[in-house]
Amino acid sequence: MSVQVTSVKGDFVARISGVDLGGPLDQRIFDNIEAAFEAHGVAIFPDQNITDDQQIAFSKRFGDLEPSVRRHRERSVSNPYISDISNIGPDGNLLPENAEAMSYNRGNQLWHSDSSFKRTPSKASLLSAREVPPDAGETEFCDMRAAWDALAPYMQARLDGLVAEHSLAYSRASMGYDAGETFFDIEKAEVPPVPQTLARISPVNGRKSLYVGSHAAYIRDMDRGEGRALLDELLAHAANDKFVYVHKWSVGDLVMWDNRCVNHRGRPWDSQRYRRVMRRTTVAGDAPTV
Ligand code: OGA
Ligand code: MN
What we know:
single chain; seven-stranded mixed β-sheet; globular; binds manganese (II) ion
């Protein structure tokens, strides 16, 4: 087996072929994959028709997995380490637009980094496309290393040392989901607001990234309005096409991204007409950011 790595957008996004992620991977091949992932922030593996168990086994090579926050719900998947990113209910049919799971998953359409609402946020996510709509429903990825580098030096100096408060209830409420009402007590207890640094340093190569996203509610020790305005300004800065790669899905794509330096968001599609079934595994991080 010979792994081919192609850069898609400079040092952002690698396309990796010549590998079967469903089978055993020897250490040398895994090391190549890990290096490409760390250098590019996003790795795309086309033509991987893998099962949930194969996805879990490959994901675990990168570290321990996070269980899905929604594991206590009735879902169309039972394994707690698989996040069900789909518009399909437990009965196998399309969910109505107003279903709780649809409203919750709509939060994925805001720019974010997965589980930045946890004290120790995730390291990486792996998303496997099982069924895709004929058009739309892309996922966009933003290079937050490049977004940091492009900030004016005075802004970088201002952000260094600032801490934002991240909360899942906040990001869901901003899309109209009433977390106070709808979260189970067990979910509320799992995701209280947590502090995160705004300027994140890569443990791999020392590069800095801007660390903001939908879960960032406000900035500590700053006037609420001023902090909110700063967060909105930074989100708008990062959303520039220069930093963004748009992934148009094919069935069998597995895309993995580094939540420490990449933001992403899902794009809408005709969810009342077409099935879109994605399965996510999430690799836990090593330590809090502050
Ligand atoms: C996710 C996510 C977006 C999408 O799975 O973490 O944000 O396009 N998905 O489904
Ligand atoms: Mn996500």
